[in-house]
# Entry
Amino acid sequence: MTMTAPPIVSSAEPSSLRVSLGLLWRDKFACVAVLFLLAVAFAAIFGPWLLGASATKINLMARNAPPLSMHLGWHYILGADALGRSILLRVIVGAQNTMMLAGCAVVISLLVGSILGFIAGFRNDWTSSLVLRLADILMSFPSLLLAMIVLYVLSPGLTNVILVLAITRIPIYLRTTRAEVLEIRERTFVTAARVMGASPWRIVWRHIRPTVTPTLVTIATLEFAFVMLSESSLSFLGLGIQAPEFTWGAMVAQGQSYLGTAWWVAFWPGLAITLTAMSLNLLANWVRIASDPVQRWRLESRKRTNG
Amino acid sequence: MSSYVTNRMLHSAISMVGLIILVFFLSRLTGNPSDLYLPIDTPADVRAAFSKANGFDDPLLIQFQHFVVNLFRFDFGTSLRQERPVLTLVLDAFPTSLMLAAAAMTLAMVVAIVAGALAARSPNGVLDRFVNILSLAGASLPNFWLALVSVLVFAVWLRWLPTSGPGGPSHWVLPVVVLAVRPCGLIAQVVRGAMITALSSAYVKTARAKGVRTRSIVFVHALRNAMLPIITVAGDQATGMINGAVVIEMIFGFPGIGRLMMESIQYRDFAVIQGGVIVTAAAIFALNIVIDLAYALLDPRIKHA
Amino acid sequence: MADAKEHLVEVRNLSVDFHTKGGTVAAVRDVSWHIDRGETLAILGESGSGKSVSSSALMGLIDIPPGEITSGEVLYCGEDLLKVSAERQREINGSRIAMVFQDTLAALNPVYQIGWQVAETFRSHGVDRADADPKALELLERVGLNNARARFNDYPHQFSGGQRQRIMIAMAIALNPDLLIADEPTTALDVTVQARILRLLKDLQRERGMGLLMITHDLGIVAGMADRVAIMNGGRIVETGTVKEVFETPKHPYTRSLLASVPGAAGFVDATVRPEHDETLLRVEELSKEYLSPASLFRAEKPAVLALDKVSFTLGRGETLGIVGESGSGKSTLVRTLIGLEQATHGDAFYRSDSLIHATREARDVARRQIQMVFQDPTASLNPRMSVQEIISEPWAIHPDAVPGSQWKARVGDLLEQVGLLREHAARYPHQFSGGQRQRIAIARALALKPEIIICDEAVSSLDVSVQAQVIALLKSLKEEFVLSYLFIAHDLPVVRSFVDRVLVMHKGTIVEQGPTRQIFTDPQHPYTRELLHSDPVLSLGNAPPRRRRLPSSDDPTPPPRPFAGAAKP
# Structure
């Protein structure tokens, strides 16, 4: 570092959306993941509306038709189930319930967990200890088992499934938020704000929240995958939402008895789950790198290497 | 160090007790717990008699008192379906699940540590990419689907392995492998990360400056430090393994606790469900103690705080 | 043609590149130096100068991707270490050439006992386990580790920084290496501990006839320890020669500017009292802070720790007061108590006539607007997610009545210019600036509410020497312009020498001595003050060599230390 002239300061940064998209393009896997997720989202939003009727149409001529039976119709490319319904269409339509259940659970647990975490981290008194202890209890027990029991007691149904999934995941956000709040509280720029007379509310909103948010977003993305897998397991076991509503997990359960004869009935919905979870994990990985200033610089500086 | 151990034991004990209390109150949540025990179409007078016989009409606190007293006497009630004491049923099923989980965990740890350590030695190399794919698969594959697909491929099509067990060693291959995939992937990722951190640390640089042999650097200096985060994740995964075990036992027909619980749910045998929860909580408590002890042994900063 | 005399270690025309994802960085370019047994060479440079690179190459510690040695030779007794096998390098490391590092807590493996780690040097070079332990113990006793036998099986975290450095030195000299490389070994230590460690190194060198390579940024250490010096800047050696030559007749402009910016190179502050000083802004009376550790189920109540013990002083308007103390002296507690981050247990502090400790919240807030703070670590004290505009205007966001919103942009621009930056920097983010510039931003923020007092909490300690001088110059000019008073906290004496009017020396929670700067430096009364002065490598230049220090007696007045004859006068 020379002593005389101050080093050149780089020019003003472009808008953050531009930058994010540019960063995304540099990581090819993450790109593909985002595109896949957009397709899933599209299916979830418009699927039942566009294809709902066709998906439930029973066609006994196409009973258990194997994949690539296009002679019966283009939509039998993935095969048909025991009632002749197109697997492809059912997967597309089933996206809505699957995504909605997982999505709602994640949003609820994120909001409740992070708010409790902020309070617990900032106040650090006996109430926060109590909350933390409850979270510990919840976390110490396998979530699926807990979900099974609660759903047994409260009887399965859309709201109960969402609630149960949400409540078992609250501790993750609570603990993470609390740990981050405790750590950030001690940082010098927070001390500087306190010295200037900032109120606790201002410190949380202006200083702590923006620093914690990227971590929470990454976790939420990973959690989406985990909750989706949990919900699928519950549906597979018959404890999720009940017929005639279905999710991908339920579809796999339906296909279980036909495994030897019509494997495609169970295969495609499970593949959909896998690909969606993979995309979410890849996206979360990219978010983690992009929001960490050090790693991000590495991503930004890649010229023409592949992702 | 003894204060650390006592502290941790207290911590875990409170979690276990809290859970048991939770289950108790959960069952009283929807009013009379008789509904949980009896089939849905039971006539009202039978329900009333049942309720009275089991003390479900008593005030909540009295019920709780009985509950706790019975716990200490290891009386978890009787299974309505099988007409045997719950504790017997649960303890019969426990060993199967334990063996399944232990085998899967061992497999997962061995593969993960080897793959992760090798991947850490050449970051961005072939093995590193393999570990990345492995952990991605582990985190994304629904275990029930993986089980079905592997049964399809290896048992139905290739006929290398039986479709369901239990039985001889070949019956255990598929269940154990499928159960091990998720923890293996997640642990491998942690091993890789922890080893890379350890190998690029200042104390490894010091060791190189001292002229320490490479094998010693990797296995004595780095691995020991890396074990701490590895054990944390392994502990979490071991607890979560029960989630996977339920599904695996159902698919492969293993008479473990998971299948027992599922069947009890299907047949509305609540006493067994409750008993299963309690025994599982106790097992997790024991596991946590073991992990805390392992921590204390590995990290001298805990022993000599 | 006969070869020149073979040196113990010689680096010839070494160039090393680092390939990062952002491009290739030239770490060092065409670097050449040599060292022989028994002599001490110092490589002097600021951060980023590449001073550690050639010694890392010597020991094979450069990771080859991403590093790349593009040219040059590194010779040990004629053998080019860049071309030897990995096994040969391993043989040499630790036994013929050894190294000690700066961050001892990180450099020692936390999970193994220190005795085991010291013995490892022996074990890695063919000594039996049974023989290695007693030798390790001997070494630990030789380096002055107290109670070595009892502490042989303790872990690194159970020792202090100075003790850990002794352990590292023991590890390094175990096999009587020909060359010992010390890479900033004392930077993280208190001044008094630093002096002892440096003395230990010198003694060991003399005893064993080693070559000693000191890598440092501290001119004082160079002057006190080295025979020859190589000055590095931007990856190149800009000047080399004996210490006397280079310091008395520096040739390269960079060397000259380094020497000129040594803290305290200028004279003392003119100690004439100015009329404004009569107005007392801050009065601290018997301020005390006790830390009680609560009794719990498993532990009896421990005795209270007295972090501040009846501290009293005043600060006048336009005055700069220096508070100097090592770690544990209580200076940080003092600051935290004054600004309200800690609650005092006894005593009081007054800003003008308002109590800072016992007043109502409103009165306290008003008083606190007049007292602002600049922190030690400029990077940590700025929120990386806020733009410079937002950072500097935050005080106005917190106190909306200070400046109306419409004027914020203009006022931020004014402040930026006052601290030596540009108006357009307001749109940038902290990571785009250097350390010194970030500190300027922090100073601009502190000025935003037009305070009367600014507390500089080790505000220049993390900066490079040359940048320190600039920031202190800035503080001086701001003081003149705005009639500010400073409480300047520092951990050693040289930096306050040309900057503060009065000095307070703190030790273990009390003020052991206070007075005008000139008096403290030329005629210290308290033994601790004397120890501080004599420990400092910079200040002991011009005196007899460090090992022969004497305390001043009445018929032998110590002349005011003049760091470097021939240094540029201000």
About this structure: The interface with chain C takes residues 3, 6, 201-203, 205-213, 216, 221, 224-225, 298-301, 304 of chain B (CB under 8 Å). The first helix of chain B runs from residue 2 to 27. The radius of gyration of chain B is 24 Å.
